[in-house]
Amino acid sequence: MNPKVGELWRSTGRIMVGAGKWIPPGAHLLIVERDMVDTDTGDGESRVVWEGGSGWISDNCLLWERVDETG
User: Fold this and answer.
1) Exposed, middle or buried: residue 4 (CB in 10 Å: 0-12, 13-18, 19+)?
2) Which stretch of DSSP H or E encloses residue 70?
3) Kind and range of the H or E element at 53?
4) What angle do CA 28, 31, 37 make, to 5 degrees?
5) Which residues contact 38 (CB under 8 A, 6 or more apart)?
6) Per DSSP, what are the bridge partners of residue 57?
7) Is it the case that residue 1 has pLDDT exceeding 80?
8) Region 11-39: what's the mean pLDDT?
9) To 10 degrees, the CA torsion angle through 12, 59, 47, 49?
10) Helix or strand or coil: residue 57?
11) What is the DSSP string of 3-51?
12) pLDDT number for residue 42
């Protein structure tokens, strides 16, 4: 996955983003910052905000998907 700042994503499961901190399933996630961990592959982490919090998600997490805003 290669999310970009400003994109809207959605969690498809419960995602842990810190000690005792979770993103609930179905939460809309706005990408607000990127941190490129591996510049060769483009993999990294995204800081996201959702109603109720913010946190970092790894590009390797399988529990989120891009929201198709075209319908």
Assistant:
1) exposed
2) none
3) strand 53-58
4) 130
5) 44
6) 46
7) no
8) 91
9) -10
10) strand
11) --TT-EEEESS-EEEETTEEEPTT-EEEEEEEEEEETTTTEEEEEEEET
12) 67
| DSSP-assigned letter for residue 54 | E
pLDDT at 70: 66
Residue with tokens 């941190």: 35
Structure tokens at 65: 């998907």
Q: How far apart are CA 58 and CA 56, in angstroms?
A: 7
SS3 1: coil
Instruction: State whether residue 2 is helix, strand or coil.
Output: coil
Amino acid at 71: G
Cα dihedral 43/67/34/56 (nearest 10): -90
Look up residue 51 and give its two tokens: 């109603």
